[in-house]
Amino acid sequence: MVEEIRSWMGKWLNAPLIILTVILGIYGAVMVSVASQGYTLVATMIKKEYFGLIAGAVIACVVVAIDYRRFKTWWPGLMILVGVLTFLPKVPGFGVTVAGGTLWVGIGSHALFQPSEPAKLLAILAVASYIARYEGHITQLRDFLKAAGFACIPFLLIVIQGDLGTALVMIAVMLGVLLAGGARPKHLLTFIAVGVIAVAGVLWLNSALGTHPVSTKNADGTVTVTQDHYLIKNYQLDRLTVFVNPNADTGNAGYQLQQSKITIGAGQLTGAGLKGGTQTTLDFLPTRQTDFIFATLAEKLGFIGCMALFILYIALFFTSLSISSSSEDLFGTLIAIGIISMWLFQVLQNVGMTMGLMPITGIPLPFMSYGTTALMMNLMCVGFLGSIWAHRPYQAATKGTIRRGITYQNR
After folding, report:
1. How many Å apart are CA 103 and CA 88, to the nearest integer?
2. Which of 195, 219, 241, 291 has the fewest CB atoms within 10 Å, measured from its CB?
3. What is the pLDDT of residues 134-163, one digit of tens each?
4. Residue 57: pLDDT above 50?
């Protein structure tokens, strides 16, 4: 009986994926709990984090049981849902402004969830579904332009909404899925070059248009009028300026980066302990439980704690690649590649920005940053990876079948 259970679990469940997810989930929950100390709503924040962990785990189990191939032809509806979620915060009565951006949905001034997080997963499914139609042969320029144009839709929708951080994630997903879907490298390189030129054009146009007055209602009922740019907001420009010139005096953005570097350096080899560290305990580091959770971890657990996190991430990426190669069809492979691309970019961007190596954005660190919506979305991604593994061609795999250049070995 025991052997039968083990055989069943080995066939349907990917043990490394489950173990790594559990460890990362617990690691993140502990760090958020530690980083939240000192905030007025610390108890509420910790409850939300553990609720997201438990609810996300339940949803992931449900997703594993669903055959991911059911979504194979759903690309039109999935893209429509991405558009609905993207613009939901702009609907009067739904949107909540947090840190200068109306990217949340809630009741009154209380933010409940961030629609751009589930939109990322839906975008991965939509783009993978569409590109899988080419069966791995996007060799003609015409086909590449069609595929790239469709893949750009989520990016453009999120840019219009004003969430540049999530838009950057969509670029990473788009490039990863296009490359795995059979696009030629020369087409991708040309596409990237055109994108760089377009960004330069937007920056020039933003400067040429100048600024316009923006009225902000304060808590005491007074109204403050400031000047802001039309296309790229002042706080977004500040973050870019800090990245280009770390010594630039750009107020909050410059202060965040300076304190983040000090916090990381203060951890040294073993860290100050979960209850130690002056930068975090004395509230010198802003947003220490969200955007700068890595700096918090570095001060608390030092170089050893950071390396442990990197090892977990590397193991997760390789496990996900293994699941990708086991997929029955190209659709499953592209879903896995999209998820890997998203996670990899978020890790590099988040860790890089805390060190001044990347621009400061609101991109969370997967499984670590505080945020119920982001945590649940990441666990749903794990659920889809589990579904791809559970519905792989198990019988064909035992015979060493070769499909699309991927060899399925005995498992």
Report:
1. 9
2. 219
3. 988 888 889 999 999 999 999 888 888 777
4. yes
In angstroms, the Cα distances linking 125 to 75, 115, 231, 357 are 7, 16, 29, 31
Distances (CA, A) of 156 to 33, 78, 112, 126, 164: 35, 16, 24, 15, 10
Q: Tell me if 20 sits within 8 A of 360, measured CB to CB.
A: no
If 0-12 CB within 10 Å is exposed, 13-18 middle and 19+ buried, where does residue 222 land? exposed
What span, in angstroms and rounded, lies between the C-alpha atoms of 310 and 158? Answer: 29
- Using a 10 angstrom Cβ sphere, with 0-12 exposed, 13-18 middle and 19 or more buried, the burial of residue 60 is buried
User: Residue 409, CB half-sphere, CA atoms under 13 Å: how many?
Assistant: 4
Global confidence as pTM: 0.86
Q: Tell which residue, 136, 353, 169, has the closest CA to residue 261.
A: 353
Over residues 182-200, the pLDDT tens digits come to 899 899 999 889 888 887 7
Residue position matching structure tokens 């030129």: 197
Q: What are phi and psi of 3, to 5 degrees?
A: -65, -35
| Structure token digits, residue 8 | 């069943």
**For residues 349 and 168, is the Cβ–Cβ distance under 8 A?**
yes
DSSP state letters, 35-90: HTTTSTTHHHHHHHHHHHHHHHHHHHHHHHHS-GGGGTT-HHHHHHHHHHHHHGGG
Pair 298, 276: CB distance under 8 Å: no
Biggest alpha carbon distance in the chain? 73
CB of 115 closer than 8 Å to CB of 90:
no
147: left (phi over 0), alpha (psi -120 to 50) or beta: alpha
Average pLDDT value over all residues in the chain: 82
Q: Could you tell me which of 292, 268, 349, 347 has the C-alpha nearest to residue 314?
A: 347
Task: Judge whether 124 and 173 are in contact, CB under 8 Å.
Answer: yes
